[in-house]
Specification:
Elements (H helix, E strand, L loop, with lengths): L3 H16 L5 E4 L4 H14 L3 E7 L7 H8 L6 E5 L1 H8 L5 H23 L3 E3 L4 H8 L10 H8 L2 E3 L7 H10 L4 H4 L19 H17 L7 E8 L6 E2 L9 E13 L2 E10 L7 H11 L3 E8 L5 E9 L7 E2 L4 H12 L4 E7 L12
Parallel strand pairs: 1-2, 1-4, 2-3, 4-5, 9-10, 11-13
Antiparallel strand pairs: 6-11, 7-8, 8-9, 10-13, 11-12
Helix pairs in contact: 1-2, 1-8, 2-8, 4-5, 10-12
Bound molecules: xanthosine-5'-monophosphate.
């Protein structure tokens, strides 16, 4: 049984022993439970030398920086630093998922290295947790926050990762124990590169705007459906000819392939292939989904919910349940909630159609890139 009080007590002692002589420490906070808990625990151990900063990458939820600063008032002071233009400059026009992730990571660490220099810090606190480490080592994707050795070489920075051995549910227990507000402790995970990995395919500011608005709607409406993660992603609504495929279960879905590629996992390795659009909402079992994606040559399947005659973008609503984030099942919201969300998303400027992702992990990943 995990005991958060014991973890905190031992970690604080260890941090004091290992880093007690630090001049100044920079804690980069994203607003998620991992980075906030890391910052607060290091602050508890080392005191005033810890400086917390929230870097606005431009890929955050609307208004996120101020929400985070307000909710941490009294626990830790957070400086807001806007570097969105720099991120956009490096990523605009990139299409390949890995190239986007790597470009994000380069700017991210470039910005942090500058802040470290500006603030005179000798350590950087990161919210890396066990799943981040496992997935990067397994080669599934470039996780933006797992590169401590490379980072230390490149920037001459040393990294403190107080939660590296914990799973997400344990981090939440530690957060509550430390008095971090429930709104953050129970918050759904948000990827480091943020809405960039949900602005699927070629990156444009227009598509990002659609994702930001759709995210707000989905997060407002799906908060109570019991999903561990629920969000929206968008890409161009460009699909090929219809075809169909009969699965060994007897089900024969008709589908079209989007031009846009998405990520998945097969046999523990990353897959990058088109996304399929299925005409009706079907409940695919994991084995059906695996057979379908493999035989159709796609990474995942999305069911069409609503459509109109104009607009450039397709928005997919994703809602999954998981404990360890290494595997995940689809959580179908009550249909009334799902259709209300899709109707509202369909009203967003530029949206042509809305769907619901029916693929478990594996064979899909939780995120689209
Ligand atoms: P996937 O898409 O690999 O996601 O099934 C598993 C979990 O990790 C989150 N995720 C990330 N978190 N940096 C992060 O800090 C990243 O680059 C990143 N990519 C995915 C994702 O939201 C899910 O909870």
């Amino acid at each position: 049984m995990f005991d958060p009080a014991r973890f905190v007590e031992e970690k604080v002692e260890e941090l004091r022993r290992d880093y007690g002589g630090a001049r100044r420490v920079l804690a980069a906070i994203s607003g998620g439970v991992d980075s906030v808990t890391s910052a607060v625990i290091v602050r508890r151990a080392l005191g005033e030398v810890v400086r917390a900063v929230y870097v606005d990458t431009g890929f955050m939820r609307l208004g996120e920086g101020s929400v985070v600063r307000e909710s941490l008032r009294g626990l830790i002071d957070v400086d807001l630093v806007d570097r969105s233009e720099r991120f956009y400059g490096a990523i605009l026009g990139l299409e390949d998922a890995e190239k986007k992730r790597v470009a994000f990571r380069d700017v991210f660490y470039g910005v942090l290295a500058e802040l470290i220099g500006e603030y005179g810090c000798d350590y950087l606190v990161q919210g890396t947790i066990k799943a981040d480490v496992v997935e990067t080592v397994g080669g599934v994707k470039t996780q933006h926050n797992v590169l401590s050795e490379e980072l230390q070489r490149e920037y001459g920075v040393r990294v403190i990762e107080p939660l590296r051995e914990l799973y997400k549910h344990e981090v939440r227990e530690v957060a509550r124990y430390l008095g971090i507000p429930e709104s953050i402790a129970r918050r759904q995970p948000f990827p480091g590169p943020g809405l960039l990995v949900r602005t699927v395919g070629r990156f444009t500011l227009e598509k990002l705007g659609v994702v930001q608005k759709a995210t707000k709607i989905v997060e407002d409406l799906l908060g109570d459906v019991g999903a561990s993660q629920y969000f929206a992603a968008a890409w161009e609504y460009e699909v090929g000819e219809e075809s169909s495929l009969c699965l060994s279960s007897g089900r024969c879905p008709s589908f079209r392939k989007f031009r846009t590629l998405g990520t998945g996992v097969r046999d523990g390795r990353r897959v990058y292939a088109p996304i399929a659009l299925i005409n009706q909402l079907v409940d695919l079992s994991e084995s059906e989904a695996s057979e379908f994606t493999e035989r159709a040559g796609v990474s995942r399947a999305v069911a069409l919910l609503a459509e109109r005659s104009s607009g450039r973008y397709f928005v997919s609503i994703r809602s999954v349940g998981t404990r360890d984030f290494m595997t995940a099942r689809v959580v179908v919201p009550p249909l009334e909630v799902l259709y209300r969300a899709s109707a509202r998303v369909l009203e967003v400027d530029g949206v042509r159609a809305v769907g619901f992702d029916i693929t478990p992990k594996p064979p899909a990943t939780i995120e689209y890139e």
